[in-house]
Specification:
The protein is of the alpha/beta class. About 50% of the residues lie in helices and about 15% in strands. It binds beta-D-glucopyranose spirohydantoin. One of its GO terms (cellular component) is cytoplasm.
Amino acid sequence: TPNKKIESYFSSNGIVSGKLGLSKDEIKDSFLEKTFYGLGRIPALATQNDFYTAMAFAIRDRVLRQFVRSTQQFNEKDARGVAYLSAEYLPGPHLGNNLLSLEIIKETREALAEVNLDLDEILDQEVEPGLGNGGLGRLASCYMDAMATLGIPSIAYGIRYEFGIFKQEIRDGWQEESTDKWLHYGNPWEIVRPEIAYEVHFGGKTESGIDEKGNYSVAWNADTVIKGVAYDTPILGYKSNGIIMRLWKAEAIESFDFSIYNSGDYYKAVEKKMRSENLTKVLYPNDENLQGKELRLKQQYFFVCCSLKDTIRLHLLQGRKLDQLHDKFTIQLNDTHPSIAVAELMRLLVDEHKMEWEKAWHVTRHTFAYTNHTLLPEALEKWSIDLFGRLLPRHLEIIYEINSRFLNELRELQYSANKIARMSLIEESGEPSIRMAHLATVGSFKVNGVSALHSRLLKEQVLNDFAELWPDKFTNVTNGISHRRFLVVSNPALSDLISEKIGRDWLTDLYKLKGLEAFAEDEDFQKKWMDIKLENKKALSKHIEEYAGVKIDPTMMFDVQVKRIHEYKRQHLKVLHILSLYRRIKKGEGERISPTAFIFAGKAAPGYFMAKRIIKLISSVADLVNKDPDVNGKLKVVFIPNFNVKLAQRIYPASDLSEQISMAGKEASGTGNMKFALNGALTVGTLDGANVEIRDEVGKENFFLFGLTTEEVQQTRQDGYRPSEYYEQNKELQGILDMLISGELSNGDTELFKPIFENLLQQDPYLLLKDYQSYIDCQEEIHEAWRKPKEWARMSILNVANMGKFSSDRSIQDYVEKIWNLQPIKAD
Ligand code: GLS
């Protein structure tokens, strides 16, 4: 029963009403109070980290106020909402963003200055939650920002990994991994909810029989039970709502086995607890590559089970009926990682809530929507029937049943046996396995890709049979980014300059940036624009000197490629370009080269041999180039270790050239491409992913295009591609490739880069040699453009002016209109 006294106090006494932000004095008071009473610190002993923590607590109070208000309003309106299921999030540091959302950056800076503290230093203390690998996890976080800002009734579910993505160090040019202890100093943003906890079962057997009411029913007698406990982090939208990111941590049901303890074996008694907690210990560090490991499947099922049980609890709490679940919720599947949800919802409805199969299937397939994030065959999730059946025997039965009904439908449509086998949820050839993308597609009412090109290829290739069967199910939502985090928070000087010219409406409507077009030719504005870039480059140079030990002249062109290291992204094509410049300079032919700093960052999956070798290659080229007095002043190469959101926020504002050079048809969208352009970098890129749409928006004259199209890539393959022909015909290219095996880059070791050399000469799966010349020619154009600073500034301004489409606010609006069909509710 609700406590009426507290309720009335809540609404009338200003606890959750009143203004959004805080005054300078309120911030100072609250900060000091948290330092002393919250942390129990005396000034002489307080560290910078204590001050950060105190400030985070002070701000968290206000953030939670917005969350409480939003939740109240969502409930009062009995709103339709979204549950977003993602195995990965990369929120980045929270404090800076929350200050912006509360519009108190200036006040906080002043409040801290009054006690002799510097806001930037305090912000720098925050350790970010690295709960994702790359673009997919960061996208989920950009979407949280937009969903909160737009007032989408929503909750984001995921996994509270104790160790996030590994910390990368570079030693002797090689990547070394160490554990990411992001929780070491505590986490002021999260709130544990021990009462929100669910049991998750694994293993055992199923048994069918007749229940008390005389109905056929199946019981799953699992052999392991684990508990999932909710940890909530409020995510605040800009000047508006707060939503919750609810992450599940695995715990033992009983932390201690008393029967074993009583028999005297203390260690054995705790072992069970440790085994249970292992489940959420660590994030799998693979982006776009499936490892098929048992623990990974367990993690996926664990968080899906807790999230669905929680969604159902929230639904029933509102006094609604379970067969209306789809009227009140869309559950968005962020890739196939949570796609076991289709079988789990069926299990919950049929086995636990005794709904009949047809009705349950109707609810299920009208509840889920599935976003595909990759076409790479090695990343399409499949689980061996054997492993799956051992861990989730009941789900295997359910999937067989869904499949058998689905295949019957196909038979009724007179589909050929071949086509039916292609579409089946079960792959029979090789080791029998479950095709998770098929399960997600069959179990969802909408399927979307993440850029126009990707969505088209998804329909034409990977899910072609399904798109023919259900054309209306397929749609596109082009990715977007949080321009508030990636411009307002991370590039304050440029943001202020923009606002001076066009006002601040662009913070909530990025299309307003269009107003900058009027100033693209204004020389005074151009100068201010480029001065800010230079300041940002100086700041990045300082960071590079400290963390990578390389001194860079900030007036050089900053040519930047930062993203996961993957062969399809072609960091090694960039290396070939650098070597071509190096050789030209050595031959005395470098007069048309503009002084350039090549900046790389990104993590390689620890088990990905070629990716790790590419990092070593970059480092070796850096050694060669940076030490050579002949090139000094013209070229610099650096690999900045440990790319993460925090580092990204320093890099984008300082970049001149954005490298988006994947082989066409491979990068589903890319989102780094948008962050660079939003900060005024010009793009050199292929017609891949969202590059296509960026180019359409900014104009082809303001984008450096090169390389084959997706269709040309396919044609090249069909015609029988022989990379060695390019090696033989192109003497410059030949000279560069020979460097890889000459020992020049590796202290005489001719074996070190042979795997890369041989891969390129024999297979070259990503067509580097084919695209090489086009890339080199394009780079010559770029170097020429750099020599005309006014032209460059104009293009840079025009890029920013035309980034309106790439706000995650627009993406979320698209999800609302095309998929979710709901009404935003803005907290007042
Ligand atoms: C990815 C794609 O590779 C990116 O192109 C895309 O921008 C991102 C978000 O949609 O998803 N898929 C994936 O598995 N990791 C990614 O970064």
